[in-house]
Each structure stands twice: as structure tokens, then as C-alpha cells.
């Protein structure tokens, strides 16, 4: 292949065409998602680099895949044959933390945990905490509207985005939103780009709302004989008007996987656990007592309230190990269906039936307070029959999520992995609307073509 | 004029062409906004009526102005010559209140206060509380992304909209969003329609997130010698990490106007007041003590904490009287600029200078906690010189808001009144993006043409 012309338009070292380097950037963390052979990798250092790249790609009708740290789970950042990989991870500066207005302005490549730590030094709190927070970037979080454990009380990434700088398909630079707490001047362009998975523009700067730091949380853990009991406790507790800062679920296989890495001191006979936190300070013991009552009313076999915050932090670290613990057992295929809370028990029971029917190992954890669960198929990738069964089980869980009045994706996005399924969740008019919006902003279809919808 | 064909397509009584009836629906509450002579008024009873109307209007390229209770303050619901007024106020049913999932499904014509009262009977809370809440509809609130006093703690209308049913320009019915707490399947179409002021579709059903009922709030009022001192106290208090459930500002002319209607028992020599509330129950006295400290640190001459919630409710009723109190003094032209909180003091001082320069009476109240103020010019509409001066002062306040890093509209919307100003707040690329989105969904330009942008 001849030397791509884009290399000469960018500063030295920004663009590379070396196949060995390109190979390292071809895939995100999704399974079963094809990735093509890209022609160029651009590691943008500035908005100008992004503008140059898009102008060239627009003029030459070359597909561009924007990507951050490639920690996504739906293949949206995977390479396209002959296209440009436009990586934003080197644009990684926290440009501003404004304590008085409680906002931060960041470049897209800033890693979530670094931002959270930076603003914490200023007495502020950036809640969105996807499981990937130690390695994923804010740009990627915004592009997928990432969630996490905080959402039950504080909301998702979109709820913290006040404004964006976006480079449009033809290289023009758009500013959306505002720095002020409120504003209704024109359409909500910010929200249109949040969660659009790189199909409408390339995000180059983000203005984020922050919150005052919360109190160090107190933690409780409730043990249940069955996953369904735990799910009923979730619906009961939140339906009664409580708002814990965390309400997480782990089933028995998940607890076993984590226990192999860290001694949790949990009883042997559990079917599932719920972990609840309260960050309201003096009122926290009372909030956790209410949680205990809800759990016991739904059949909890025991409830333990951690006496000090450090114990709770250990427990949360264990919860955050789930992904690693599952990956030690095999390849993983992670669903992220989200259902109405009252249907959670049906969801976990249905997931168990699906696992049995397909003879696959299933481990289920999730943000139960939001109805957002991560049933995870664990399988041997080298065994084609197992891989095929895993894929079928993964898809049946999406069908179940839809049947229960939910969505195929609560926080991971559609990407390539769930593209065919988007058409089952949305109707024809909604898909038409997506196409119209996409065509209106990217008429040549160069931005992450074929992702999210066909 | 001949009998419009649309009348025969709709059920009896749904559409009328009687000029006397039409006249009553021609205007919203905005001043200085032209309204045309409409051909037909459709008072839709069902989605089918809306579909029929839009199909006909689309086929015949007739402009359609959607409207609710016409309480808007920017002229977005004003009639267009020869067009259809499509009024949704008769679609006024609360279709569902789901206590377990904490959501409500409503038709657009439900009045805000009625919804709030209905969900309160179920132990739930619908926070958005625009000043018009006793008379404005949820559909109108959604179409303008209305705010209110709750926003400083709970956010704006958009933050409570989970999903919509929207009739598109050509009469197709679109469903956006979801019932679940989270969901990222496709673009955030819901947010695109929220705040779009009737230019992208006609909202026929709304799924709203609710919150658990809060504790009955406690209230404090702080008195200041100058408006600037009060504004500094706002920035100081929120910058220190406090989150009152209400933080409202009234200047001296506003307090005087309200005092003429209700005895507030305020001291005679005040320059401005702040009203703060806390709805956190047992922690409320502590939150209000923190407010008192912030206020005194910024020069408050006195701070009074109401001993019981009833006193606070009287004070809030007084705050809600502001609009009526101002209208007793003359015609009013209400700005709703929103600035970063640290610029609030500059805003109120600048507004005073503008009032003096133009020789107009200015009364300023607002949602100071959000930086969202309502400087209100009060004038004699029958005096052309005064009216012209009022209009100039109104515009200079928008210029000031922009100069201070803010927005021309924090919660009232652009409509007709601020259309020319939108082009000063947004740049060319942002305006291009608006046009592209509008054209992609309403290629014939029949939906509220000429509103928001040109």
C-alpha cells in the first residue's frame, strides 16, 4: 500500500501507517466484533490535528473511527478496512477545575479515575464511575454515555456534561452547551453527541458539572438464598422511596469468582448478595438500617453493616474485581440489559434458564438499583461449539430484556455487537429519525460508518 | 375565507375557524411578539387528531404552531398567518403513576401543579416548578425545558423526561426514550425534542421520572444592604459545597411590589433578600445555619430562620407572587439570563445601570442559586417612548448576560422574542447544525417556522 497522504498533512509522529502499530489499536474490549485493517492511525495532540484529519477524510471519503482507550465493550472503536483510526488518548489534559462554579473542562483523553482524583483534591466529586474507570477516558465515557455504580443516586455521564467542543465530519469546530447551570438557547446539541458513539462528530473538549464531595460512605451487605429474593429486595427498597448511593448485586458464581481472588468472608450457602452504601454522613446508619429492613422483609438470610468505612471500601474493591475475576475463568461476553426494577427477579431467573438451556457458565452482577444487570457468559473461546452457544445465550438475554419492557443496553452502547438488535428495540420511525440526523450532520457517512445502526 | 378543508377531516368540534375563538388562542404571555391571523384552531383530543392535522398540513405545506396553555414568555406559541394553531390542552389525562418505578405517563395538556399534586398523593415528588406551574402544562414545560425554584438542587424539566411520544412533521408517530432508569440504545432523541419549542415535532405523551417525596422544607431569609452583597453570598454558599433545595433572590423593588399585596414583615431598609430552603429533614436546621454563616460572611444585616415549616410556606407564597405583583405596576418584559454564579453581582449591578440609563423601572428576582435571574422591566405600554426604552433595556440585559459568560435564556426559551439574539449566542457552525437538524426532520418547514432561529 502506498504511503497515505494524510501522514504529510499532520505534524511529525502524529500519524503512523506501520501495520504493527496499527494492529495494537484495531480492537476495543468487545468479543465477537469484527475489526478491519486500518490504513492510518492518528494520535491527535490537538484540535488542529483532528480538524486536519477530518477535512482530509471528508474530502477523500475515507471512514474515520474515533477512539479513546479502547475499553468499550461493543466494538464501536474497532478499525474499518482502509480507514483512519483517530485516537484521542494523547489529548489528556485537565484544562480547568473551577471550584466556585463546580465544573471542570477536560480534553477527551483524560482517564476517568484521574479526573475523579484531581477534582477530589479540590473538595469536589465527579460521580460517573464505569467499571473501566481506571483505564477508560472521559471522551469514551461521553461517547458511550457510560454509567457505573453511582447512577442509582447521581445519574449517568450525560447528566454531568454541560458542553462540548466537537469537530464535525467536514472539519468544522462546533461548540455546544454552556458553562452555566441552566440554559435553553437552541436545541440540546450536547445531548445529541453524548452517547452517539463517534457517529456524529469527534469530541475534543468536555465541560463537566461536578458536585460537592460527599461524606465517606458506610456500607452494608445482605445475603440471600436466591438471586430472585435479592432482586425483590431492590424493588422493595427503592419503591419505598430510599436512595442509596450504591445498590449492587452479585450472584453466587460471581461471588465465587471474586472469592478466588480476595477473601470476602461471605457465608458458604448464599445464592446472591446486595451491597448498599449511604454517603449522607450522620444519616447513613439510619439509611442502612432501612436497607436492612427491606432486605429482611424480602427473605435476606443475614445483613451485615460495616462498622467503619474502610471495611466498606474493601467490599467495593471486591465488587470492582468482578470483571477481572470473570476473565480468569475464560472469555467473557457481557450483556448490559436494563429492565424496570420490578422485573429484575424475572430477569435473573430467565438468565439462569438461558444459561442452562445453552450449557454455558453464567455469572451475573450489576447495578441492580437501576435495573441494569450484567449477565456475563463465560466460555472457552477455543471451542467453537461453546463460543456459538455463548453468542446465542448473549442474544437471548437481550431478547429477554426487551420482553421485560427494558432495553438491550443500559450503559455499554450498541457499537457493532448489538447493531442488529437496535432495530428490534426501536421501531421504523425511530430508525428513520436516526438516519435523518446522521445524514444531516455527516452526509458522506465517514464517521464510524455502520456502527450503532446500519 | 373559505372553509378550511382540515375541519372536515377531524371529529366534530375538534377544529374551529371562528375568528372570535381563534383570537383567544393567538398569543402567549410574551410582550413585543407579533402574532399572525391563524386559519384554524385544532383542539386535539387524541393522538389521531394530531396525526390527521399534521398529515394535512404537511401535504398542503401549511404552518402549524403547537401550543399548550399559552403561558410562555417568548412568543413561541403565537399564531402564524394562515396557519394552524394546534392546541394540546384538552389532552390532559394522567395516564399512569407507577409508584414502584417512580414514574408517571401523562398527556401534554396536564397542568404542572395538578401532576405534582397527583403524584404527591402517592408519596412521590415531581420537582420542576416553573413560576407558571398553576397554569402551564407539562407539554409546554417539556417543549421549553422549563425550570423553576427546584432546579438548584433537582435540575430542570429535561432531567425528568425519560421518554416521549412525538408526532413528526409528516404525521408519523415516533417513540423516544424508555421507561427504565438507564438506557443508551441509539441517539438521545428525547433530549432533542425537549426544549425544541415545537419546531421538530408535536409532543403527545410524556414519561416522567419522579422522586420520593422530600421532607417538608425549613426556610430562612437573609437581608442585605445591597443586591451585590446578596449575590456574593450565593456564590460563597454554593461554592462551599452546600446544596439548598431553594435559593431565591429578590431586590428591593420586587420586595416592595410584593409587600403591596402581602405583608412580609421585612425590615424597611433592605437592598435585597435571599430565601433559602432545606428539605433534608433532621439535617435541615444545620443546612440553614450554614446558610446563615455564608450570608453573614457576605454582609447580611440579618438572617431569620423560620421556626416552623408553615412560616416558610408563607414566604414561598410571597416569592411566587412576584409576577402578579409586578404586573400590578405596569406591563412587564421579563429577561431570564443565566450567568456563572460568581458573575451574579456584576449582573445585578449592570442591570441597575441599564435601568438608570434608560429611565425604566426594574424589578429583579430570580433563581440565584443557578445564576438564573429575571430582571423585569416594568413600563407603561401606552407610552411609546417608555415601551421603546423598555425593549432596549431588555435587549441590553441579554447583551450583559452574554458578556458575563452566560446565556440569553436560562428557562423561558427563545421563541420569537430572542430569535435575533440566538445568533449572537451561537456561532455560525452551531446555527448551521440547528438548520441541518430542523431540515432533516421537517423538510417542508411546517412546524413552528421562524421560531427559535430564522
TrEMBL record, chains A, B:
Keywords for this protein: FAD, Flavoprotein, Oxidoreductase
GO MF annotations, alphabetized: FAD binding; oxidoreductase activity
Keyword ATP-binding: no
Lineage: superkingdom: Bacteria
Cofactors, names only: FAD
Entry keyword Flavoprotein: yes
Family, similarity comment: Belongs to the FAD-binding oxidoreductase/transferase type 4 family.
Entries under PANTHER family matching the protein: GLYCOLATE OXIDASE SUBUNIT GLCD (PTHR42934)
Protein name stated in the entry: Glycolate oxidase
Amino acid at each position: 500500500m502506498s504511503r497515505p497522504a494524510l501522514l504529510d498533512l499532520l505534524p511529525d509522529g502524529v500519524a503512523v501507517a506501520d501495520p504493527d502499530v496499527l494492529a495494537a489499536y484495531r480492537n476495543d474490549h468487545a468479543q465477537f466484533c469484527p475489526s478491519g485493517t486500518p490504513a492510518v492511525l492518528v494520535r491527535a495532540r490537538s484540535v488542529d490535528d483532528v480538524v486536519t484529519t477530518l477535512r482530509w477524510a471528508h474530502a477523500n471519503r475515507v471512514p474515520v473511527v474515533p477512539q479513546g482507550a479502547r475499553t468499550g465493550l461493543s466494538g464501536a472503536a474497532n478499525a474499518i478496512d482502509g480507514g483512519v483510526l483517530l485516537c484521542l488518548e494523547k489529548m489528556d489534559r485537565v484544562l480547568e477545575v473551577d471550584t466556585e462554579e463546580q465544573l471542570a473542562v477536560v480534553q477527551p483523553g483524560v482517564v476517568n479515575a484521574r479526573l475523579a482524583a484531581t477534582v477530589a483534591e479540590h473538595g469536589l466529586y465527579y460521580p460517573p464511575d464505569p467499571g473501566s474507570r481506571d483505564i477508560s477516558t472521559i471522551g469514551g465515557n461521553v461517547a458511550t454515555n457510560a454509567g457505573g455504580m453511582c447512577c442509582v443516586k447521581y445519574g449517568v455521564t450525560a447528566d454531568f456534561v454541560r458542553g462540548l467542543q466537537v469537530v464535525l465530519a467536514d472539519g468544522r469546530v462546533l461548540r455546544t452547551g454552556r458553562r452555566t447551570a441552566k440554559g435553553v438557547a437552541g436545541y440540546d446539541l450536547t445531548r445529541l453527541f453524548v452517547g452517539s458513539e463517534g457517529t456524529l462528530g469527534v469530541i475534543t473538549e468536555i465541560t463537566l458539572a461536578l458536585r460537592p464531595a460527599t461524606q465517606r460512605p458506610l456500607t452494608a451487605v445482605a445475603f440471600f438464598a436466591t438471586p430472585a429474593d435479592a432482586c425483590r429486595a431492590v424493588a422493595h427498597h427503592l419503591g419505598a422511596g430510599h436512595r442509596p448511593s450504591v445498590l449492587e448485586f452479585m450472584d453466587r458464581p460471581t461471588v465465587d469468582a471474586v472469592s478466588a481472588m480476595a477473601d470476602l468472608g461471605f457465608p458458604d450457602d448464599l445464592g446472591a448478595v446486595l451491597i448498599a452504601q449511604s454517603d449522607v454522613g450522620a444519616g447513613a446508619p439510619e439509611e442502612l438500617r432501612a436497607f436492612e429492613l427491606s432486605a429482611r422483609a424480602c427473605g435476606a438470610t443475614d445483613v451485615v453493616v460495616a462498622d467503619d468505612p474502610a471495611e466498606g471500601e474493601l467490599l467495593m474493591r471486591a465488587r470492582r474485581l468482578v470483571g477481572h475475576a470473570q476473565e480468569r475463568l475464560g472469555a467473557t461476553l457481557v450483556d448490559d440489559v436494563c429492565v424496570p426494577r420490578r422485573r429484575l427477579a424475572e430477569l435473573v431467573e430467565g438468565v439462569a434458564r438461558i444459561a442452562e438451556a445453552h450449557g454455558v457458565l453464567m455469572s451475573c452482577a450489576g447495578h441492580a438499583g437501576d435495573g441494569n444487570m450484567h449477565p456475563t457468559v463465560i466460555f472457552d473461546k477455543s471451542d467453537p461449539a461453546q463460543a456459538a452457544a455463548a453468542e446465542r445465550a448473549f442474544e437471548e438475554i437481550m431478547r429477554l430484556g426487551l420482553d421485560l419492557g427494558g432495553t438491550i443496553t443500559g450503559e455499554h452502547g450498541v457499537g457493532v455487537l448489538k447493531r442488529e438488535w437496535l432495530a428490534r428495540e426501536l421501531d421504523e420511525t425511530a430508525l428513520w429519525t436516526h438516519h435523518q440526523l446522521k445524514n444531516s450532520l455527516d452526509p458522506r457517512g465517514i464517521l464510524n460508518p455502520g456502527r450503532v445502526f446500519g
